[in-house]
Amino acid sequence: MTQFFLILGVGMCALVLLCLYRATYGPTVLNRAAGISAIGTKTLIILLLMGVIYHRIDMFIDISMVYALLNFIGCLVLAKYLERTGEV
Amino acid sequence: MTRDSHDVIVKTLARLLMPFIVVYALYVVMHGHYSPGGGFQGGVILAAGFVLLVITHGLEKTRKRMSEKIAGVISSIGVLIYGGIGVLCVILGGNYLDYGKLSKILLVTPAEARSLGILGIEIGVALAVMAVMCTVFFAIYTVGESPEDERSVK
User: Fold this and answer.
1) What is the DSSP string of B4-55?
2) Which one of A29, B56, B67, B143 counts the least CB within 10 Å of its CB?
3) Using CB atoms within 10 A of its CB, is residue B71 exposed (0-12), middle (13-18) or buried (19+)?
């Protein structure tokens, strides 16, 4: 079973690389924002998979919830900043 | 500046999310000695709630609930709780922050007094961190505002 979750985690890391490409070379700033937000979501899942692998899911679920919250707020701050500077 | 925004989705989401953020922050503070977290992290999550309020509902509405003056008072109260518990332990004949001595006034066993003492310390730390984070965020957020916002700061 651990093998299964390990493979899932490696697949998630591959997806993070794809999102990282979009965040780096995105044509517009909105593509970059979406890429960063998607990386945050995948990091959350990777954290949970790590919790399952290390048998400490109760600890990692706390961390992942805070991560999701801060990811959401960070995305909003980014959007607000872009609105203010008039880049969009 | 902040033009009059009609972002209904974000505002509603923030309103729905705010109570859960506060409850989660309290959970992180209370369970600091069992799970990751503690006073500092709980305070940061509380401050993140205020950041969310500022971003979605504007600075003025948030200032009505948490102004710089109130934030200063709350941070002082947090430090007072921390230092007060520490000094109380000294008065009761122990070292600084020696929670076991609190059993004399809390009327519980020393082990329970230690748990309660750490909880009190974490509440103090959470209050101080929340207020200071809010102050820092307000200070950063108001820089570069238009003159009318500048006036309302003073």
Assistant:
1) ----HHHHHHHHHHHHHHHHHHHHHHHTTTTSS--HHHHHHHHHHHHHHHHH
2) B143
3) buried
What φ, ψ does residue A86 adopt, rounded to 5°? 75, 30
**Chain B contact for A61, CB < 8 A?**
no
pTM, two decimal places: 0.82
pLDDT at A46: 93
- Residue A33 burial (CB count, 10 A): 19
Tokens of B71: 């934030």
For the record, the structure tokens of B9 come out as 């989705």
Tell me the pLDDT tens digit for each residue of B94-124: 888 888 888 888 888 888 888 888 889 999 9
**B55 contacts in chain A (CB < 8 Å):** 73, 76-77, 80
Q: Which of residues 1-20 of B touch A (CB under 8 A)?
A: 1-2, 10, 17
Report angle CA A80, A82, A88 to the nearest 5 degrees.
Answer: 125
In this structure, of B12-16, B83-87, B141-145, the range with the lowest mean pLDDT score is B141-145
CA B2 from chain center: how many Å?
Answer: 27
**Cβ-contact B27, A69 below 8 angstroms:** no
d(CA A68, CA B19): 16
**A-interface mutation test, from B20, B52, B62, B134, most A Cβ less than 10 A away:** B52
